[in-house]
Design a protein that fits this description.
The chain has about 280 residues and is α/β, with parallel strands linked by helices. The protein is built from ten helices and ten strands. The protein has two domains: about 90 residues, Leucine Dehydrogenase, chain A, domain 1 (Rossmann fold); about 120 residues, 3-Layer(aba) Sandwich (Rossmann fold). The protein is globular.
Length: about 280
């Protein structure tokens, strides 16, 4: 079974648009991008397009690639204080001269729709999330849409980034999966991945996971986005693994669309929380 993230995204965005229209609220997302990295610019354009689709207002702030940490934080601080802004997204990665952690910490937790602020990550890891990072939460939503029961599953997450790997493990634990996290120092990686009922791969290496690393009948979630031989591909060798897995996400069209849908949902949630924080 091919897990169609594009179809599920469109379904969820249509429902979200209806909910926003009925709510009477005017959620608004602000994006901050530093420099002119083509991939980052593309991602930001896609996010603004999704905002239009669901009737979320949006504003984009672009800073030169030479911007300092203080200059980025100044823009973020202004957005924190703007009552018309529901959510703030700082597009990563930032140029090397900028202290990324300082910038992330400068975003008000109540507007941190990316879910990267230490306060929101702390809530997530304590089992009481408010905002979770969009990619792992989008994966959870995709699994739910297809009706996978996660309780008791052995889930193996390959990758330990704060954007995907670590919060993915926390979300899976909260749903009673048994979680193993692997990384670049893991010994005999294939022996571990081949035990997984659910395999989530986020390591940034094109077609790294082949059939020998996948258990027969496993659910395989490919988070990777790489360009190899002139084509876009994931961290999983899709053509060789798809017949071994019971379900698998394609690249493109799998996890990526779910990330954007979840960002929109987080932004609307932020707008609702701003009216009555204690109710959520």
């Amino acid at each position: 079974m091919i897990l169609d993230g594009t179809r599920i995204r469109e379904k969820r965005l249509e429902l979200l648009k209806e909910e926003i229209d009925e709510s009477g609220l005017t959620p608004r997302l602000a994006t901050v991008i530093v420099g002119n990295d083509p991939a980052s610019e593309l991602y930001v354009r896609m996010k603004h397009k999704a905002c239009e689709q669901v009737h979320i207002g949006s504003v984009g702030i672009t800073l030169p690639g030479s911007a300092t940490t203080a200059e980025v934080i100044r823009e973020v601080t202004a957005l924190n204080g703007d009552p018309d802004i529901s959510g703030i997204l700082v597009q990563l990665p930032l140029p090397p001269q900028i202290d990324t952690l300082q910038v992330i910490e400068s975003v008000a937790p109540a507007k941190d729709v990316d879910g990267f602020h230490p306060e929101n990550l702390g809530r997530l890891f304590s089992g009481h999330p408010v905002f979770a990072p969009c990619t792992p939460l989008g994966i959870m939503n995709l699994l739910d849409e297809y009706g996978f029961g996660l309780a008791g599953m052995h889930a193996v997450v390959v990758g330990r980034s704060i954007e995907v790997g670590r919060p993915m493990g926390a979300l899976l634990l909260s749903r009673d999966a048994t979680v193993t996290t692997c990384h670049s120092k893991t010994r005999d990686l294939p022996a571990i991945t081949s035990q997984a009922d659910l395999l989530v791969v986020a390591i940034g290496k094109a077609r790294f996971v082949g059939p020998s690393m996948v258990k027969e009948g496993a659910v395989v979630i490919d988070v990777g986005t790489n360009r190899a031989d002139g084509v876009l591909c994931g961290d999983v060798d899709f053509d060789r693994v798809k017949d071994r897995a019971s379900a698998i996400t394609p690249v493109p069209g799998g996890v990526g669309p779910m990330t954007i849908a979840t960002l929109m949902e987080n932004t609307f949630f932020a707008a609702k929380r701003s009216l009555c924080p204690g109710a959520w």
